[in-house]
C-alpha cells in the first residue's frame, strides 16, 4: 500500500536524498523537474528528510504527518548516524551532504542545486524521514466536446 505524501513537505524544508545518500535536485524546483530528477535516480526512489524546525513541525502537523508516522511510513531519527542506518549508507556520506546543505542554509556558500530558501534550517535537529517516489496524482488538460457534448476521439 502506498500513500500520496503532501508536496508541501518539500516546501516545508524537505531534503531529497537518493539511495546513495546524495542530494540530486533543488527540492523547490517545479514538480516536473523534481519528478524527472527522481526518475533518473537509481531504483527511481528517494528519501525525503525533514529537519524538525518549528516551521517543519507546524507544517507536518497541518499536513497530518502523524498519520504517516503511525502507519510506519515516516520514521523519526535523532541523528545522522540513525539516518544512515535507515537509508543504508555510510554516515560519512550524510555528514558531507548535510555539511554542504547547512553551509548554504546559513548563507556561507551557494547551494549546489541553486536552492535559495531553507525554511529556517541552520542546524541539525532530529529528522523525519520517509521513502518517496514520483507519482502522477492528477492530470491537467481538457477534453474536446462537440456542441452535443459528445467527445471527439482520435483513436476510434
From TrEMBL:
Q: What are the FAD-dependent oxidoreductase 2 FAD-binding domain coordinates in residue numbering? A: 4-141
Q: Does the keyword Ribosomal protein apply?
A: no
> What residue ranges are annotated as transmembrane?
none
Keyword annotations for this protein, in alphabetical order, are: FAD, Flavoprotein, Oxidoreductase
Give the cofactors, semicolon-separated. FAD
Q: Which InterPro entries match?
A: FAD-dep_OxRdtase_2_FAD-bd, FAD-oxidoreductase_2, Succ_DH/fumarate_Rdtase_cat_sf
Q: Does the keyword Oxidoreductase apply?
A: yes
Q: Give a single Pfam family match.
A: FAD_binding_2
Q: Which SUPFAM superfamilies match?
A: Succinate dehydrogenase/fumarate reductase flavoprotein, catalytic domain
Q: Which molecular-function annotation in GO is an example for this chain? A: oxidoreductase activity
Name the UniProt record assigns to this protein: FAD-dependent oxidoreductase 2 FAD-binding domain-containing protein
